[in-house]
Please model this.
Amino acid sequence: MLLPEARACCADLDVRPWDDHAIRDAVLAASTALLAASPQVTPVAGAPGMWWVGANGFDAVGGEAHLARTLLTIAQQWHPDARVAIADSCVAARAATWAPRARDRAMRSRAVRERDPQGVRERDPLTLPDGITIIPAGQCAEYLAPAPLGLVPMEDDLRDALQSLGLRTVGALASLDAGDIEKRWGPAGLGAWRLAHGDDPRRPGLVRVEAVRSASVELPAAVESTEPVLFVLRAQLQRLLRECVEDGRAAASVAITLVLDAGRQYPIDDIGSEMRGHTHVPETSDDTTTKEAGRRESGRRKESPPAPSSLTPQPLAVPSLLSIPQRSITREVRPARPLARLEPLFDQCRSLLERWSIPAPIIGVTVSIPATAPLAADQGDLLIPSWRDAAMNAEAVFARLRAVLDPDNTGTVVVHPEAGDSHRPEDTGRWISADAMALGAAPIPAPIPAPTSPAAPPTPTTDAVLRLLDAPEPVDVEAPHGIPDAVWWRGRRLSIASADGPERLSGDWWRADTYARDYWRCVVDDEGEFLLYHDGGVHWYVQGWYD
Model:
């Protein structure tokens, strides 16, 4: 559905940008809640809002119908129109969540009668809430036959080819010969053909729910310097990393939350009437004042809370560090690769605090590791006491470079060359900010083969690259016969062994800064090659050198 169509259906639509971090947190919360129903829960990759859940071994605790009710109750906490399907294969279960309601009820009735001929009255599927489908055992292919082809995961080119042949349903694909499918479309086509028969290798797996890795410290007195914070931060970070190593994990990010004394920075009367008497103020994860947080909290109290449920994930109660007017600000450190070593992570945290503008005295610190990754083993010689991880040293260097070159964490450290449409050497290309992840995922272009002729000898090529100065620098040139013989640059006299030129470059006559230059490529003994030019035959400039 497009945005104008959605606004036509709901005039008060609240449009919000896609937030990967919020989606990841919601998927993790839903996965944790689903573990109350089954120990096997796997979020579907690339499809937020869909999970594979293991449904084996529930005959003694109510069977599949009871499991479906439990899953639906949990899922409806996030969406009122959640759907649950139970089948022998993941592809059939996913297709069942897209089935119409009438077909849904008929399939549920048939499923329970075939799987449980005894006690049908006690567990009649028609008494189950809408949104539950149970496909009989061994009948995934029959159920998938009338389903549209789009419900079978496959490559877009393969789907377009099948539709161009007139295949619109899963049953039409399953009726083809497997040998013909493999000859024409290879392993991708054969895999889609097997999915059409209900043969799906995907299975839900056991989910590892990580413990909350967080440590909060209340400072004995409000401080305005970061030195006491660094002392507390190092000790708490070391303890958290020790716990990560014991679990075989490494820190992918470190979050630092500073609890500030808002009363010292903002008068109590300005913060809000609810703040008088040092009442508790809900902590915020952004740079909002307690007045704004209190206003949002009072607005939320008007809403009726949902009915309590034993399956509802209850948020953890985090006590306030101090019962005084306060605000909290949070920043994250994200290393280039997951780390379990204290020194490189602490260096990044220290550089973050050094450039962090603290608006009020600090009364508390919270250090947490919100994201982890499997711990990678470092290779080294245990018999050499002075051995150190080279990757750790390089990571520390890169962290300091990022802190200096990109203090605001805007991501402009990574740049990409872009060609320009100009004959001026300084305008033939420029550096632009680029997405490091997109550049890393982009395929490496194949080298262009140089045309060779058996009759002509190969032309010698040079690997020299022109390095341009930020701006051409004026120099004095000795040219007794019109050819550069020596150049005075930065207080030194450089004797020119050979000079190749002149090469006339001119253009941009329609602009105010039109140019007409004569370029010379000069070789200086023991120095290399320089690029000189003179403008109008009077002023000489050095524009760069060849490396």
About this structure: The chain has a mean pLDDT of 76. Residues 227-246 form the longest helix (20 residues).
